[in-house]
Amino acid sequence: MTRTPREARRVHLDPAVAGRRPATTGPLLRALGALTLGYSGYLHLRIALDRPPLLADGRVTLMGLFVAQAVAVLVVVVWVLVRAGAVAWLAFAVVAAASLAALLLSVAVRIPAIGPFPEIHEPAWYTDKTLAAASAGAAVAVAVVALAVLRRRRAG
Q1: pLDDT tens across 127-153, in order?
Q2: CA-CA-CA-CA torsion for 54, 60, 61, 67, nearest 10 degrees?
Q3: Whole-Å CA distances, 12 to 1, 17, 32, 115, 154
Q4: Please, which pLDDT band fits residue 13 given cuts at 50, 70 and 90?
């Protein structure tokens, strides 16, 4: 059904329609998310910069993967801080869960080298690794809460 310009203008000016904005989360949840996942990204970047190189013999090193994780974290943290809608929080959750999963898998399993990516296996736990796991786990929890809040706001 095609609306006339007058009908379209009336719908646009209707306060029930025009006043609707996409649901977002509050500043406290955004800041908590930024701190939790941001800390994990900071730890990965700090470790990577302490032990260069990022590339060796045309292959990505483990430190290169750490830098890639830190960049992904930066992107989703800024996205959530600027526009904390469902898609931003979903991307945040994916990065947080992938960070946590990679860290836990690196302890338990020897992940073979694939293409230009290195073999990953580091069974030792040390302070930075424990803190990165805790902050990534907390970030996953924050993302789940944020997505639940958004779903509730959208439903009601």
Answers
A1: 999 999 999 999 999 999 999 999 998
A2: 50
A3: 16, 7, 36, 53, 20
A4: very low
